[in-house]
Design a protein that fits this description.
The model has no long low-confidence stretch (mean pLDDT 88). α5 links the parallel β4 and β5. The protein has a single domain, classed as HUPs (Rossmann fold), CATH 3.40.50.620. The chain is built from seven helices and five strands. By secondary structure, the chain is of the alpha/beta class. The longest helix has 16 residues.
């Protein structure tokens, strides 16, 4: 299928889900613009490094890379990712409870900025790597949330024709890993750890989900870990 000539904005945190989302957007569009948000998260410097490495891989020009400081999220706090008084928890099995790594209403802030930038540069599609598998923990990763958000964007923008695309929302982590390999996405340039930026801890919820995804895919994660628990 021919690529669209329409410019698309991709939200690239530097994580594995956003990497595969960027790879899928690259399959669909000739021109991409990448947006990254620094919000005072523990691994901010490492995520920014990964953002640039991923942008380099997909040959996104410097002028099409936008980095926005949203450190007010750290001022608000309430998350182990931004609040120094809350420790990052170790993975303790799957749970239906919202984890304390949830940054209150974060994706709404992030997408709002992407919509504003899209209006300025003429993009009609915004890609975000939300995953429904995380939905029991993160309310802003649910399909119903993005349906509501797209309705709001339609009502609140000048032309009403900007749409948020969630290409990995129904995929399991092992499927995301396999898709990354299929699309030759640079997994070594992605980062999922909530706790540290020198080497992944291997024990936080995000590391555990990632390692379990690789294990189920029958592949080995190329990034460095302090500990690599076994998952099946």
């Amino acid at each position: 299928m021919a690529k669209s000539s329409e410019l698309a904005v991709v939200l690239v945190s530097g994580g594995m889900d956003s990497l595969v989302t960027a790879a899928l957007a690259n399959e669909a569009h000739e021109k991409l613009a990448f947006l990254h948000l620094n919000y005072g998260q523990n691994t901010e410097d490492k995520e920014l490094q990964c953002f640039h490495e991923i942008a380099d891989h997909y040959k996104v020009p410097a002028g099409s890379r936008k980095i926005i400081d949203v450190s007010f999220l750290k001022q608000i706090g309430g998350s182990s990712l931004t609040d120094d008084s809350i420790d990052v928890k170790k993975y303790d099995g799957d749970s239906d409870e919202i984890p304390d790594s949830y940054v209150p209403f974060r994706n709404t802030h992030i997408v709002s900025m992407a919509v504003s930038w899209s209006e300025v540069i003429g993009a009609k599609k915004i890609y975000i790597g939300a995953v429904e598998e995380d939905g029991s923990g993160y309310p802003d990763c649910r399909p119903s949330y993005y349906k509501a958000l797209n309705a709001l964007i339609k009502e609140g923008t000048k032309d009403g024709d900007i749409e948020v695309i969630t290409p990995v929302i129904h995929l399991k982590k092992e499927e995301i890993v396999k898709k990354a390999v299929e699309l030759k996405a640079p997994l070594e340039s992605s980062w999922s750890c909530y706790e540290r930026g020198d080497k992944s801890c291997g024990t936080c919820d995000s590391c555990a989900l990632r390692l379990r995804g690789f294990a189920k895919a029958g592949l080995e994660d190329p990034i460095e870990y302090d500990k690599r628990p076994s998952f099946s």
